[in-house]
Amino acid sequence: VKLEDLGEFGLIARLARGCIVAPERVVVDIGDDCAATENAGGRLRLVTTDLLIERVHFLRRAITPKQLGAKAMAVNLSDIAAMGGRPLDAFVSLALPDDLSVEYVEALYDGLREMSAAFGVNILGGDTTASLADLVISIALTGEVERERMLRRRGARPGDRIWVTGTLGDAAAGLDAILQQRAELPEAAPLVARHLGPQPHVAAGRVIAESGLGHAMLDLSDGLSSDLRHLCEASGVGCVVDASALPISPALRTYAERFGLDPIRLALDGGEDYVLCVAGDAGLGAALGAAGHSAFAIGEIRAEPTRWVQRADGERHPLLPRGFDHLRCRDAG
Amino acid sequence: VKLEDLGEFGLIARLARGCIVAPERVVVDIGDDCAATENAGGRLRLVTTDLLIERVHFLRRAITPKQLGAKAMAVNLSDIAAMGGRPLDAFVSLALPDDLSVEYVEALYDGLREMSAAFGVNILGGDTTASLADLVISIALTGEVERERMLRRRGARPGDRIWVTGTLGDAAAGLDAILQQRAELPEAAPLVARHLGPQPHVAAGRVIAESGLGHAMLDLSDGLSSDLRHLCEASGVGCVVDASALPISPALRTYAERFGLDPIRLALDGGEDYVLCVAGDAGLGAALGAAGHSAFAIGEIRAEPTRWVQRADGERHPLLPRGFDHLRCRDAG
């Protein structure tokens, strides 16, 4: 059996067997955005980890070290946000190739520090070592959430509205602009910024958790079509996404038109949006809006466990996961 | 400035600046075996992380995947042991090169699981991704320790005896045997086993913590001469190590004699012993012995901040750190 045939999720399912030997303290294990464990004082402890490898997740020439550091921290913060949690402390491990300058590493750390400090997160350590080939960034981030407020991927109910907390597809178009040598065009700038500088929706996640109106949540990292599959399968439900309701930014609309791309396709399948996707009550939009956050209703949860996208002409197509599998294909940026 | 000129510890000192934005919950930050943070219920929360990179920390042909998994987990458990803590939950991130088989990854996980299960530790998740070059293993391990029992690198007092919980230099001789193509010799077998299969001294660490007789502790990973420097500098003290008291295993003595190596040198400078080194009362040896653990008194803490090794002939030499700096040199195994 080859790794690429099994895929990331097939492999994880195999490896997860027998990993829990002390189940009494485990609330959420493998398969959600964070693990959650029992803790004194009624708050669950959250942990998320993320491993970024040069040439697989980023190209050194396509992102500044400061942007890279900030992005590496942001994607972990987004996982804490996805559980409705508050981030606490980060642990950063770096494997540094010989040809890297001290200035590069310091700029990388500037980005890490700025992003973590903006969310009250300490960087408390980690490991620094050499690498003979690629730059490696490994982050573990802790957080906490009140037990009764935590949101998981499971829990979506038929009739729930599906909300997202920001526009979709911008980061994917930004990656396209970088790969197609169009990053310098003025209309590409906001898209490239979304790709290189994602902002984790931690505050929106807290509003959703505290509202009590959300039933299931995750952050969009692999792409809406893949991530909605995760949420629906974990919840044992299906969904219908309304293509005409997908929030497309003016910048994406302009860029897609100019270069003959389908903005709906980018919004459905493009990865690295790092907005929250939550299934819950119709009142969630107002709760988010009142707190100053964006909220777009993009569809509905259905009891029947199939996933559809409804186009403007009324026709329904299966919502196939075309997002990112880390063992099956590679991106860059 | 080049990374190798600055070295691992110089770089960490630069990067650590400004990393703490919420000091109120931090008890131990960068520079100890684990970070420790406040937690509800009077117990501190410990976190340690370790990043293993192929060709820097291991060679795939020199260690079986199961041994590699077990060792990767063991070195993190050893860091929890070094604070006197109990390990709780592990998070394992892997970057997998294309040419790796599913069987290799499953055997790696068998090793991870067996070692963690032996200490009641769950594997609760992590990240699995591709790598274009080297296999990367990143582990974050949580633990806990009663606030008043925690042992740090700082705290050693003049007059303290220096104890180690196992023989020294075996792992370094085992690495030598592998590199010199002598791993198949019968006399090398126990040394190679110490190099490939370190056993973390978690139970001994708990005995030391609960005895209240220890003042400062760390685990020996870089080599006694380097690690004692860390302990002495953190404590603002010096030490004298008695060369004739260093615990040398019969296997190391035989191997060193046959191949013209100095066993004292290997015990002083060889890395990856993964035994505990603790400065404390004279009664520590009896406390460890009563609980079934080894304890060897190898020297004494002195007020004067210099470090010496006293040879059998009574002559004193400076105890220079000749251990491992991860940015200055590379080992393999």
| Order of secondary-structure elements of chain A | HEEEHEHEEEEHHHEHEHHEHEEE
What is the tally of beta strands of chain A?
14
Helix content of chain A: 25-40%
Radius of gyration of chain A: 19 Å
Oligomer: homodimer
Number of helices of chain A: 10
SS-based class of chain A: alpha+beta
Greatest contact pair? A-B, 78 and 78 residues
List keywords for this structure.
homodimer; 333 residues; alpha+beta; 7-stranded mixed sheet; 10 helices; 14 strands; disordered C terminus
Description:
2 copies of one chain form a homodimer. With 333 residues, chain A is α+β, with helices and mostly antiparallel strands. Helices cover 33% and strands 24% of the residues of chain A. Chain A has 10 helices and 14 strands. Chain A has helices at residues 3-15, 65-81, 102-117, 170-179, 189-196, 202-211, 224-235, 250-258, 263-269, 284-290, and strands at 26-28, 35-37, 43-53, 86-97, 122-123, 128-131, 136-146, 161-164, 214-219, 238-242, 276-280, 296-302, 307-310, 316-318. In chain A, the strands form 2 sheets. In chain A, strands 1, 2, 3, 4, 5, 6 and 7 form a 7-stranded mixed sheet that branches. In chain A, strands 9-11-8-12-10-13-14 form a 7-stranded mixed sheet, sandwiched between helices. In chain A, a hairpin with a 5-residue loop joins strand 13 (307-310) and strand 14. In chain A, helix 2 runs parallel beside helix 3, helix 2 (65-81) packs parallel to helix 6 and helix 4 crosses helix 5. Chain A is globular and about 55 Å long. The two termini of chain A are 30 Å apart. The model of chain A is unreliable at 329-333 (pLDDT under 50). At the A-B interface, helix 1, strand 3, strand 4, helix 3 and strand 5 of A face helix 1, strand 3, strand 4, helix 3 and strand 5 of B.
